[in-house]
Amino acid sequence: MRPSLTIQRYILSAILPYFFSSWLLLSVVLFVQQASRFSDIFFSVNIPSSLVWQLTLALVPTVISFTCPMAALVGVIIGLTKMQADGELTAVRAAGASNLQIAVPVFLLGLVLSAFAFAVNQYGVPLAAGLVRKIAVQSAIYKLESPIEPGVFNTEVAGFTIYVRQGDIDNGTWKNIFIYNEDPKAGVVRLITSQNGRIDFTDEKSELVLDNATVTTFSQHEKHKFISEIVGELRYAVQTKRGELIQKLGSEELTPDELGLNQLSAYAQKKEGSERTEATLLWQRRLLLSVTPLMFCLFGASVALRLRRQGRGLALFIALCSLVGYYLLAFFGEQLARTGHIDPSLSAVLPILVGLVVTAVLFVTPRMDLIPADLSRVGSIFSEVFSGWRPNSGRRGVFAPFTRRLRDLDILGNLVKFYFLTLAFLAAVFLIFTAFELWKFAGSMEGGVSLLVRYLFFLLPFVYIQLSPPAAMIATLATYVLKSRQNELVTWLSAGQSVYRLLLPCLTLMLLIGGINFAIQETVLPIANQKQDEFRGLIRARGLPKNTSGKYWSANGSRIYSFEPGAEVGSDAADGHENTANASDNDSAIARPPCTRPSVSRLTIFEFQDTGGLRSVYHTPCAVWRQRAVHIAAGSRTSFQSGTQQTGMVERLNLEEDANPFLALRSKPSHLTVAEAAVQRDASESDVERRTFAVAVERKYETAFLPLIIAIFTAPFALSISRKGKAATVGLAIALWLVFMAVTSAFEQFGLSGTLDARLAIWAPAALFSLIGLFLLSRVKT
Question: Which pTM value belongs to this model?
């Protein structure tokens, strides 16, 4: 019998709500992941808002082309599993429809989605890649043309390190300027101080213009004399990358990412060696993403139609395992092509072939239980032990006195189950997308796979913190929707239980999750973020270590610090061995002291007089900051007086500093704890940097309460769900969460730009949506 159009429409109506909800949720999650790569553009006050909006739109095609197949798999599996659990598929089969006939509307949906994915990969993704490239170049040009930010050390002007204490950003004028210029070959250091200055741009040339500048020149080798002179107007011709960037912006040559499928195929035919392989693999990957929606629709239908009445939690778990397996096969195929074991044009055949075989086998095999009967029996025994009064049961569980009335453990169990299932699914999508981005680098270098695995491992804490709030939202919705569908909510409310009491386990768990998230953020996340940034840099540089010999700079009061990162020049006092590998060449006459604590190396301290003149310069192989002081075990001090410089040895010198000047080593807020970010906020002399760290501090505090806030405005939608319109109500809850994210991001921008105070920018959306949730809860029948 051929199923009627009514049945086909009904099957699609059961799938589409879950498909669109999943697509929206996954796209937002991956958009956040993509936006984090361009945080310097999204959160820069010097970049025009038009470029920010263009970048936002440019990220959409890549994201939706990747999430469309995943959402298709989730929508088909959950939608058909729901029909199976409700006995609707049994009724359809009783009307004479076979499994293949039931799969017809799913197949048509897959064809439509694959056609859409093909159009996006043919036109949308190349257009977006070109737009992203142009935006990145334009943003770099704006940064060069914009005034140097007061309170921030600028090293973008070749050969110079520039620091401005005060400035008028609108007019582009600076005050109280410090400029460091070093000639390594001649061993000459030139320090320039001035009360006023600016940078003039003419076409592709740039000039550094200073008024009444004091120039102090001294040798690092001959430490006897120095030259100090005052220049009325000082002009330096400086080299920037502005001309190169303008040329790149006007270039009509397209990268492989900006080519359509036909152009990319022609491009690959013209190349040889690794370039041809990478272009062919990119072409194959786009075709794979175009075919995958149809593949996932058929596979999801075959899985759901083979299952007996089992929950959507199991369906989500199957979808998760399928996604991971499918994309691992895609990675394996690409790796075989890169190593020459198969032709690159066949790399996408492996996951498609395996998918077709598995789908065909599932369609022709009898229906099955994926959970063995013995395991099901163990699960039922466990449920009986930890539940109170069970329907149609004449006995109580062991812990019935604790759960007899509200079955709190049952609610908590469902919350925890759905929380971790959702977290695992979203994390798998996040990591797969990240791996797809970096595979072209990691797969073409020796040890790249191991490096990528380590990067993904250290990325996990960041992924967890980012995905915990949406996982909490889905867990809350799924738990109470399930209780509503099983009429348990109606039973409990009819028995006189308050809806607020039913929410107590959920709110308690969310508060606990928030506390755990805050602890992870303060202990694990700073170190993990440093490691994952390091590994990502190595992967993108194809294994070449980043040059860490560059100087870091910081300013505290009348002192300016220059140092290099992370050396532990040290020895074990017991064996008396010393490591002097990080000692400066200029400090050869200085005894190499052991630093038994984490330290900075090659430290130079410039100390200035109140009038702005140079007073002294300290050199030391290593130093540490503790107990509000910079501790120098041994080093040299050069004093500048009356046209001469005098150098002497110093030992056990402590320079008092209220704030740690070496936090510049971890200048990103994500590398700092709350306390360290607060110190950076208070010590910074840059308004922009101070606002950035102020917002970061409040965001870190908000982490502890975010799951609870989301549960508060999500719960009313779950509790008010009737047996009709469930998908629409769930979709409304997800839409409200998206609005919350949009409002939060907008207020955060206001905080970064200084329009709003940091506390108001972060906590106002949280308070607003908490009040909305409480208002909606007050209207739920109790």
Answer: 0.73
293 found inside a domain: no
Q: How far is CA 584 from CA 476, 602, 620, 687, in A?
A: 58, 6, 8, 34
Residues 615 and 631 in one domain: yes
Find where tokens 């690794």 sit: 274
User: Closest by alpha carbon to 113, among 86, 75, 81?
Assistant: 75
Structure tokens given for 299: 């596979």
649 and 595, same structural domain?
Answer: yes
- Which residue, of 221, 239, 257, is where some domain finishes? 239
Q: Is 204 helix (H, G, I), strand (E, B) or coil?
A: coil
Distance, CA of 671 to CA of 526 (rounded, Å)? 4
- Residue 418 backbone phi and psi in degrees, to 5: -70, -30
What string of DSSP letters covers 9-59?
A: HHHHHHHHHHHHHHHHHHHHHHHHHHHHHTHHHHT-TTS-HHHHHHHHHHH
Regarding whether 724 and 761 lie in a shared domain, the answer is: yes
Final residue of a domain: which of 208, 239, 270? Answer: 239
Buried b (16+ CB within 10 A) or exposed e, 545-556: eeeeeebbbbbb
Extended strands (E) in 184-303: 188-202, 205-219, 226-238
Residue 397, pLDDT above cutoff 50: no
Residue 632 has pLDDT above 70, yes or no: yes
Tell which wins on pLDDT, 392 or 422.
422
Residues 609 and 741 in one domain: no
Region of 721 on the Ramachandran plot (φ > 0 left; ψ -120 to 50 alpha; else beta): beta
pLDDT value, residue 392: 42
